Structures are given as C-alpha cells and as structure tokens.
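[step 3/7] fold_predict: job queued, chain A
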Amino acid sequence: MQSTDTENIQDNLSGGSSSPEWAVLLLCASPHADSSTLSALLREVSWPALFALAQEHGVISLLASAMAQLQETLAPPEFAHKIRELHRAQVLSALQMTVELFRLADQYRDAGLDAVIVKGPTLALRAYGDTGTRQYGDLDFLVRQKDILRATELMISAGYKPEIAVESLSPQKIPGQYLFVRIAAPLLVELHTERTMRYFPRGLPIEEFFARRQYVNVDGHLIPALAIEDELLLICIHGAKHLWERLSLVADVAAFVTRQTSLNWQRTFATARAVGAERMVHTGLLLASTLLAAALPQNVQTTLQSDRSASRLAAKIATWLPSAGQTPPGLFARALYRVRMCGSVVAGLGYLLRLTFSPTQEDWPAGMVNEHDGRFAALRRPVRLARKYRGGEKS
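[step 4/7] structure written:
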C-alpha cells in the first residue's frame, strides 16, 4: 500500500471527526486513549448528540469507562447519570448472561455434546479484560449441525422455547441461526453450526475449530471457546457481514489484537485463506489500526500494506461508519461490497449468489412443515432482500 492509500484511509476515517462527538468516540474506543485529549474534546461536544451517537454505535460502556479515568466531571449531571445508568444496566445484564453461560455450559458438558461459546462474555474478557465492558444481548454457541436436534432438546429441557419447533428441524431447512428464548425471564441464546455460518465465503472448518478450542477462565469457570486466532477470524467476518456499520465492531478487533499478544498471525492468515476471508480480515485490521490506533506487528502491517483493495474498502466503509447505519449503502452498493470482500471477482460473485439464494427462516412460507413446502423460498429471498435494501434501509 503506497503512502497515498494510507492518507486516503486516514482522511476518510477522520472525515466525521470534524464532529467533536465522533472524535470522542474514536478516542474512547481506542486501546490507547489519551486523557488530556479526551478532556479537551469533551469540552466541545453537544452532550445530547454524543449520547445518541454512543448508543447508536454500541459504545456507551467504552465512553463510561474512559470518562471514569478523568480527574474531573465534564458531563452535565443529566447525561452523566444516563451514561452511568446504561453502563450499570449493561454490567448487570452481562452478569446475568454469564451465570446462564455457566449453567448451559455445564449442561452441554454433562450431556457429552460439544459446544463452544463465541463472542459474548468470553470475547469481552479476551478483548477488554471485563465481561461487562462489551455490549451484547445474547449468548452464542457453536455446535455441529449433526447435533442440532440434541442441542435443541437440551435447550428445551433448560427452560427455553425454540423459534423453530423440533418437528420442523430438517437437514434441508437451515435458518440463519437457531434462536431460543428463555421462558422464565427474557434471555436469548443462538446456536450456530457450520451450515448457518453463511457469511464464511467457504465452509466453516468446524472440526478444526473444535480441535483447536481453548478454555477461558471466566470467574473461576473454564468455558470452552474458540482459539484466539479463530475468534479473530470470526469477529472480522461478523464485522464484514454487518458492513462495519457500528464502531463497536471495529473496537472489538482493536481491543482483541491489543490484549491477545500471543496471537499466531501465520495461523490466522492461513485459516483466513482457507475459508476465503483474507480480504475481510485485512479490512478489519486496517480499520482497527488506522481508525483506533491498534498496534500490529511489522510483518502484519506489511501484509496489510500489500492489499490495496482492502485499503480502498476500508476507506469506503469509513464514509458510512460515522452514521452508525443511518445512511447505509443501497442495494447495488451492498452487492458490490459483498463481491469485493472475497478478493476475486469470480469468488465474489459466487459468494454474492450464494447469499442471495440461500433462504433463511425469514424466507420460509408461513406454515412451512417440510422442505418441499419451501421449494420456492430461494426465489423469494432475492425479492425480499431487494425490498429491504432498495432504499438503503438500515440493516
């Protein structure tokens, strides 16, 4: 990547920073925030605008944590109270979900069913050192597709109601995720498999992921999680799936690579190549390093500098990032983005077509019982997506 490419990325990424509110959020989300700079910026902000923007970007807790490090209180009492209360609510929610994580992990272990937690509390701990700093609203587990019936039965016995009834489970009907709602109190759990992870350009190598799993110590409980290299790959693909519309997605990558100093970068890039996600990982790392000053090893920087297309993608993403999805790209721009995220035109077109014609539960007709009832679901999907994103609707 030549110097002009770097300058273009920096110009685009800082394009919203003429707004002091956006500049504050960038600083709060950076692993290397400077308190004196933050204090100066906070004296210039519109607090209603800053509060709304932080909510849209899912970084209220990062804002609260950064403000807590300051030696003076700069927020008006009304907004200081709102920020503290939202942060407190997020911490309490994280505690509740962590307790439920322990219960479900024990249940899967006792049943002899392999399941690893993805994102959620373990990602928060690995990235920020605290399960309550990262905003998340559900628990996500990865299981094998062949185990989904057993996993569903276990979730029902644990007091959850499945979105898809047991009798409707079918190898030919794969939803976007298997969603469960706890009956006793509101709490969501999503089960993912190698077949629901549609946004991997090539199939998720689930056996390799399980073979490399690691255990994260969460409040004295050893919880099975992805290897850190696989977790980084997953959060980059997740960010790409959502068009990097929220600053929290980039902040996760920046915080993760900053804290996880033992990352095997060679393995990270090798796995990314194997699943066709090199461009997605490069783009996520470029956003994290250029936007939030995440420090990367020199050999990683050299790899990123060689990917001119990832640099251009990062610059393009920067044009819509400050709006937090309020002014997202339209249908054609979204399609072009999906193609470019895969590296080559042929691979990108194949990826786009697969995403366009692979129906999820949103595309199944009402009352669908078996796969034959859904034979036209693949044709319904592009029509539904065209309606949804025709005007650049927020995803």
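[step 5/7] annotate
Confidence is low (pLDDT under 50) at residues 12-17.
The CA atoms of residues 20 and 332 lie 32 Å apart.
exit 0
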